[in-house]
Specification:
Elements (H helix, E strand, L loop, with lengths): L5 E5 L2 E5 L16 H9 L5 E4 L7 H6 L9 E5 L3 H18 L4 E5 L1 H6 L9 H10 L1 H4 L9 E5 L1 H8 L8 H10 L1 E6 L7 H16 L8 E5 L5 H12 L4 E4 L6 E6 L2 E7 L3 H18 L5 E4 L3 H13 L6 E4 L5 H7 L4 E4 L22 E5 L3 H8 L15 E7 L2 H4 L11 H9 L7 H7 L3 H15 L8 H13 L5 H19 L2 H6 L8 H14 L1 H8 L5 H10 L1 H17 L14 E4 L11 E4 L1 H7 E6 L2 E7 L5 E7 L4 H8 L2 E6 L2 E6 L2 E2 L4 H5 L3 E7 L5 H9 L5 E6 L4 E8 H10 L5 E2 L9
Parallel strand pairs: 3-8, 3-9, 4-6, 4-7, 5-6, 7-8, 11-16, 12-14, 12-15, 13-14, 15-16, 17-20, 21-26, 22-28
Antiparallel strand pairs: 1-11, 2-10, 17-18, 19-20, 21-23, 22-25, 23-24, 25-27, 26-27
Helix pairs in contact: 5-8, 7-8, 7-9, 9-19, 10-19, 11-12, 18-19, 18-20, 20-22, 20-25, 22-23, 24-25
């Protein structure tokens, strides 16, 4: 059944100006806005400040005003993307200079750290980062001693630092610095954080509360135009426990100035990809013909969609009218694309991209926008990109937008929306639609998020074991339990985390040492934890005897030392157990590291010839050659290639089905295959991509066809998984990595764990 599009006019928006800002702000804030002043004032007596001003109304400057309260202390600004790091570093430098602050502003990403000299403090990234925090002059000798540092970094660095994930020689130093050295912490655009990133943020806030840093004057500023309901609930928990939280609405105030034009919005059901792209190409051609003086943009969910749309526009003779911006677009190409009449982009421009043009038009930079949205946060973020007129001379020209939403929204009641009711009515209606929720957030929080947070808590407990603060770790756990939900206690997560740490130690130990004593590198209570996990998985009868103390731990330790076969079984279990949980402790969810590729014919790029690209995207969508390690795209694939994995299993097919399906595990030495219409295409690059371990969940394809199809439409990948057994070859599907595993479980696939614990917390 075809669903009717919905048309609605969103009224213009205004922001409150401040005609008489405090004296301290007059040099650093020209034409101050009320929310900027309110953030500055709130920081005097609040621990956490949320600036909820609309997109593009100066929240960055608002957050930086907080530095004025503690001008000699270090601060950190966490920007959600590397592209935004560069922009916010420049903004911070300008603010610091205008305010007369002594801070040294430094940007930190993995790429930046690699560029720093190895001659000064060593080559390890954590070693470099710690020395920068300890004394910036150690890394940059040209700057003055004892200057406070303003660090501009991304959620990756912040997560790895605060979760003790750097090299073993550096992780405690780096984590301690991140927990203790910053008096002002700014999280930008945190509504776009995924579940894993939010765990890191909320863990940090809970830590600051429990360990008394708020009482010592620590200030946290959260910047978002569309707060995530789950995060608001979490902050309510902290507020109920005494954390002083202030929410600031930038639109409240007497002196209103225009910030966004009226937007004529049409909401359409999203059709299949080819139909959607054809429809978009026709729409863009129509707008370029009818309103050639207007500037527009299209924001879609993937590079594939953007590239196919670009090809359709070229066939219409519009190749000189657009530029592309996606995750692989180099800086030079971004700047060029920003000046084109039409910008074709992925979510990479959702934050920090202001559609600035040179020369700047008197009206809005973006007159029209077409976009797709899978959830409410993305919808409102993108609507807020069009028609922005803060500081413009012409503010009355209306803008237009077309939004594509999931078809389910119409079945859930979108059709009853009053098209004359405006922005508030639309906001309320979208809030009611289940199809626009982000259920993965709650699903993750109430499954394995606690195990992820248990690692830094266990390390903290060990570091504080002989100190008075040791009792704060259980209190930290209880606070997180109130935030995330769940009914397990701290002892349960201690046990599981110790087992995982022990498994990693055994898995990485030399074979000779394992043969002599498999538990040689495992200390204290972790010995019992890994033994218990091993027995639960491999020998439930022995586990029962250990649990009821019919057999002691020392008896099993002796067995591991004296029986080489049992020791080998423990080594295998530890290796698989450790590898299966590796995605939980990795920040990025991609299967492979990005590759450097050349694109001289412009299949992917508009100006540059080199970029970084996800190998999955390369393998599926392009023909390429590889000479002496250099990969060059030579054509677009005529049809999308399918990637699959193949495993040699030494056992019968019945055994594999009974022991390996619907189980969070890891498979060793899987081969990657590339196929087109069922025919295998030999590709030398595949061998280079193959890893020692492939973690994931293998499921029956026939029993889960509906789930697999539904998840594919949502952008969750699974891959054919071919298993060559001793007696037959069987075909399954694998959901690799954390997000695929979690989403499979959310859709009704019951997942088992190697240590026989429950995947879900209920």
């Amino acid at each position: 059944m075809a669903h009717k599009p919905i048309s609605i006019q969103l009224e213009p928006r205004s922001i409150a100006a401040c005609n008489d800002p405090p004296l301290a702000l007059k040099d650093c804030l020209k034409n101050a806005l009320q929310h900027q002043v309110d953030v500055f004032e709130a920081a005097k007596d609040h621990d956490i400040i949320l600036d909820l001003a609309p997109t593009g109304t100066g929240k960055t400057k608002a957050s930086l005003t907080v530095l004025l309260h503690q001008p000699s202390k270090n601060a950190i600004y966490i920007a959600p993307t590397n592209a935004l790091i560069e922009q916010q570093t420049k903004a911070a430098e300008e603010f610091v200079k205008a305010a007369g602050l002594p801070h040294i502003v430094k940007s930190v990403s993995a790429q930046e750290v690699r560029k720093w000299s190895n001659d000064l403090v060593g080559s390890r990234p954590g070693e470099k980062l710690y020395n920068l925090l300890r004394n910036p002059a150690t890394i940059f000798p040209d700057i003055g001693e004892n200057s406070p540092l303003l660090l501009v970094t991304n959620p990756d660095i912040f997560y790895y630092a605060t979760f003790f994930s750097y090299h073993r020689l550096d992780k405690v130093n780096v984590a301690t610095s991140f927990y203790t050295q910053f008096s002002t912490i700014i999280f930008d655009e945190f509504h776009l954080y995924d579940a894993k990133q939010l765990v890191g943020l909320l863990f940090y806030l809970a830590y600051l509360y429990i360990f008394g840093f708020f009482e010592a004057g620590r200030r946290v500023i959260l910047l978002t135009a569309t707060p995530e309901p789950g995060c608001e609930t979490a902050l309510t928990v902290l507020e109920s426990r005494g954390v002083r939280i202030k929410k600031i609405n930038g639109e409240a105030g007497e002196h209103q100035i225009p910030s966004q034009t009226a937007v004529y919005l049409e909401i359409r059901p999203q059709p299949e990809r080819d139909v959607l792209l054809s429809e978009l190409a026709d729409e863009i051609a129509r707008r370029l013909t009818k309103c050639p003086h207007e500037n527009g943009a299209v924001i879609l969910d993937s590079k594939v969609q953007i590239d196919k749309l670009a090809g359709l526009l070229k066939t219409k003779g519009l190749g000189d009218q657009f530029g592309r911006i996606h995750g692989s677009t180099p800086k030079k190409d971004r700047a060029w694309a920003a000046q084109q009449h039409v910008i074709l982009a992925t979510s990479t421009i959702d934050v920090g991209f202001n559609f600035e043009r040179d020369p700047a038009p008197l009206r809005q930079n973006l007159d029209w926008l077409i976009f797709s949205a899978r959830d409410r946060a993305v919808f409102w973020q993108r609507v807020g990109r069009v028609g922005r007129v803060l500081g413009k001379k012409e503010t009355e020209n209306p803008s237009s937008a077309i939004a594509y939403l999931p078809e389910r929204a119409w079945n859930e009641g979108l059709t009853v929306l009053d098209e004359n009711a405006g922005r508030n009515a639309l906001e309320q209606k979208l809030q009611e639609l289940p199809s626009l929720e982000r259920p993965f957030l709650w699903a993750y929080w109430q499954s394995e998020a606690f195990l992820e947070a248990a690692r830094p808590m266990l390390i903290l407990e060990e570091l504080l074991e002989t100190l008075p603060q040791a009792d704060l770790v259980p209190k930290l756990f209880e606070t997180l339990k109130a935030i995330f939900g769940g009914n397990r206690d701290w002892k349960y997560y201690q046990q599981r985390m110790r087992a995982l740490q022990a498994a990693q130690a055994i898995a990485t130990a030399p074979k000779k040492d394992i043969a002599e004593d498999p538990l040689r590198f495992v200390k204290g209570k972790s010995r019992w934890a890994i033994t218990a996990a091993f027995l639960r998985s491999e020998s439930p009868e022995d586990w029962e005897m250990l649990k009821t103390k019919q057999v002691s731990l020392s008896d099993f330790e002796k067995l591991f030392r004296e029986d080489a076969e049992v020791a080998h079984q423990l080594k295998i279990f530890a290796s698989v157990f450790s590898a299966s949980y590796a995605p939980l402790f990795q920040f990025r969810s991609s299967l492979f590291e990005s590759l450097c590729i050349r694109d001289p014919k412009g299949f992917l790029l508009d100006i540059s010839e080199e970029t970084q690209l996800d190998p999955v995207h390369l393998l599926r969508n392009y023909e390429f050659i590889s000479n002496n390690g250099e990969i060059e795209i030579v054509a677009r694939a005529q049809a999308t290639y399918e990637l699959s994995f193949q495993l040699r299993y030494y056992g019968r097919a019945e055994e594999f089905t009974g022991t390996q399906l619907n189980k969070l595990t890891a498979f060793q030495h899987c081969q990657i295959r590339r196929q087109l219409k069922g025919a295998v295409t030999p590709t030398p690059l595949l061998k280079e991509l193959e890893k020692s371990w492939l973690p994931g969940v293998v499921v029956s394809e026939t029993a889960n066809q509906g789930v697999i199809f539904r998840l594919h439409k949502q952008g969750i990948d699974s891959y054919p998984f071919l298993v060559a057994c001793d007696d037959a070859q069987k075909s399954y599907r694998i959901f690799p990595g954390l997000f695929g595993i979690m989403t499979a479980a959310m859709n009704g696939i019951k997942i088992r764990l190697m240590d026989e614990e429950e995947f879900w917390i209920t």
